[in-house]
């Protein structure tokens, strides 16, 4: 029979009460087990196991900010000398994220059954990044779990900072673009048609630009449902293609060589790769395993393919420097820093320095990109507004010339 987990409350001969969790195949088995310890059962409740199935299948990865806070707190508790099971219980009480809380409860139950920490976390690989599971495994084997968690916290902190900068850079053009669309639609729907009676009374031929915007106004007024439906269909088709294997590869390849954003994307890719590889190799994980996991973290399908090819070249006997240089993915400084690290025996330190350098470079590139996008967006907005104004003024000038 399968053992069931029970939460019990019992008393000893001195009248002192004790509580705990016990596994048995029935309630009678619990009574017998407690009697063998000279305990008398007072209360018994069956505990429903909390496993990976309690967490929604196919759920997205946990936010890196949540994982950063978790790793920082967990490392601090372990560094204070708190036993692992008790540390898990403390973390369970502190966690606010519901999904992570479920995971920690399930991990606690798996540890009670005798599983290792990394093995318990691996049950939730759909919600946790692979680097986290591998780093916990390395820390568990080497006895430096708190150090591995601190490195993970630093890794997630850098990832959060990079993502925040990218989102910040894209926020301005998105807001300006949306506002431009709203202004143009309002002018085309309400401002331009208000002049139509005046234009029609003059019985003159309207300029092409005015007629074009009037046609657009009629289209929006009469066919707005079809336009919205068409927009949703286009968005759906584009998103579907971008998430397909071929579409994702083409989009990721384009981002690396795009004229405006390409420089920023390459530097972010270089910093993310260097940081991940440094974090993994510093805990003793083999280079081939570290490269495989780095390819999964860089968030670029072309880079993933190239890094898998680099791993195969290392297995064939090439150095990391040669394998990375031949990918032609990263700036030359990345491969040079790797070469120095391999020759000096300080690969993880040189990768850390490379990551820090490219993080600063990415920050500078994103700042420049934002500075460049602002005037570009202003020019685009100005051109659109000028077109609408001309569509109104040109017929007026025509009427004035006819009268004169």
Mean pLDDT: 82
Give me the number of helical elements.
16
C-alpha end-to-end distance: 104 Å
Largest sheet: 3 strands, antiparallel
Which ranges are low-confidence, i.e. pLDDT below 50, for 5 or more consecutive residues?
50-59
Along the chain, the helix and strand elements come as EEHEHHHHHHHHHHHHHHH
Structural class: mainly alpha
Keywords:
single chain, 404 residues, mainly alpha, Receptor-associated Protein, 16 helices, 6% strand
Could you explain the architecture of this structure?
This protein is mainly alpha-helical. Among the domains are: 4-48; 53-158, Up-down Bundle (Receptor-associated Protein); 262-364, Up-down Bundle (Receptor-associated Protein), CATH 1.20.81.30. Helix content is 74%, strand content 6%. It has 16 helices and 3 strands. A 3-stranded antiparallel β-sheet has the order 2-1-3, with helices on one face. Helix 2 (64-79) packs antiparallel against helix 7 (145-191), helix 10 crosses helix 11 and helix 11 packs antiparallel against helix 16 (347-403). The longest helix is centred in the last third of the chain and has 57 residues, at 347-403. The termini are far apart.
Q: Helices, strands, pairings?
A:
Elements: E1 4-11, E2 17-24, H1 27-35, E3 40-46, H2 64-79, H3 84-94, H4 98-112, H5 117-122, H6 130-142, H7 145-191, H8 196-202, H9 208-243, H10 245-257, H11 262-281, H12 287-297, H13 301-315, H14 320-327, H15 332-344, H16 347-403
Antiparallel strand pairs: 1-2, 1-3
Helix pairs in contact: 2-3, 2-7, 3-4, 6-7, 7-11, 7-16, 9-10, 9-16, 10-11, 11-12, 11-16, 12-13, 13-14, 14-15, 15-16
């Amino acid at each position: 029979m399968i053992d069931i987990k029970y939460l019990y409350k019992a008393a000893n001969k001195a009248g002192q009460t004790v509580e705990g969790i016990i596994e048995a195949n029935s309630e009678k088995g619990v009574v017998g087990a407690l009697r063998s310890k000279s305990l008398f059962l007072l209360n018994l409740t069956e505990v429903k196991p909390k496993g990976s199935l309690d967490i929604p299948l196919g759920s997205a990865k946990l936010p890196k900010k949540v994982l950063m806070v978790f790793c920082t707190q967990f490392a601090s508790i372990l560094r204070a000398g708190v036993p692992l099971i008790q540390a898990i219980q403390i973390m369970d009480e502190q966690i606010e994220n519901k999904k992570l809380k479920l995971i920690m409860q399930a991990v606690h139950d798996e540890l009670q059954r005798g599983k290792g920490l990394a093995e318990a976390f691996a049950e939730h690989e759909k919600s946790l990044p692979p680097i986290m599971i591998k780093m916990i495994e390395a820390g568990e084997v080497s006895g430096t779990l708190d150090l591995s968690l601190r490195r993970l916290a630093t890794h997630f902190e850098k990832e959060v900072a990079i993502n925040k900068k990218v989102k910040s850079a894209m926020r301005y053009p998105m807001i300006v673009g949306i506002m431009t669309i709203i202004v143009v639609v309002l002018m085309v729907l309400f401002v331009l048609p208000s002049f139509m009676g005046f234009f029609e009374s003059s019985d003159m031929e309207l300029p092409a630009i005015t007629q074009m915007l009037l046609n657009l106004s009629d289209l929006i007024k009469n066919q707005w449902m079809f336009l919205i439906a068409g927009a949703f269909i286009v968005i759906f088709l584009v998103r579907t293609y971008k998430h397909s294997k071929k579409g994702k590869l083409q989009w990721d390849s384009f981002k690396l060589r795009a004229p405006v954003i390409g420089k920023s994307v390459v530097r972010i890719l270089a910093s993310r790769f260097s940081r991940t590889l440094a974090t993994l190799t510093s805990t003793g994980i083999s280079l081939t395993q570290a490269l495989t996991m780095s390819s999964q973290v860089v968030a670029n399908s072309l880079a993933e393919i190239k890094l898998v090819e680099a791993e195969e070249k290392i297995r064939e006997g090439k150095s990391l420097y040669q394998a990375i240089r031949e990918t032609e993915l990263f700036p030359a400084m990345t491969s040079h820093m790797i070469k120095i690290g391999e020759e000096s025996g300080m690969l993880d330190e040189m990768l850390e320095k490379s990551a820090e350098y490219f993080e600063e470079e990415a920050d500078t590139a994103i700042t420049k990109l934002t500075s460049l996008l602002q005037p570009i967006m202003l020019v685009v907005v100005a051109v659109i507004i000028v077109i609408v104004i001309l569509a109104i003024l040109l017929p007026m000038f025509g009427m004035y010339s006819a009268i004169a």
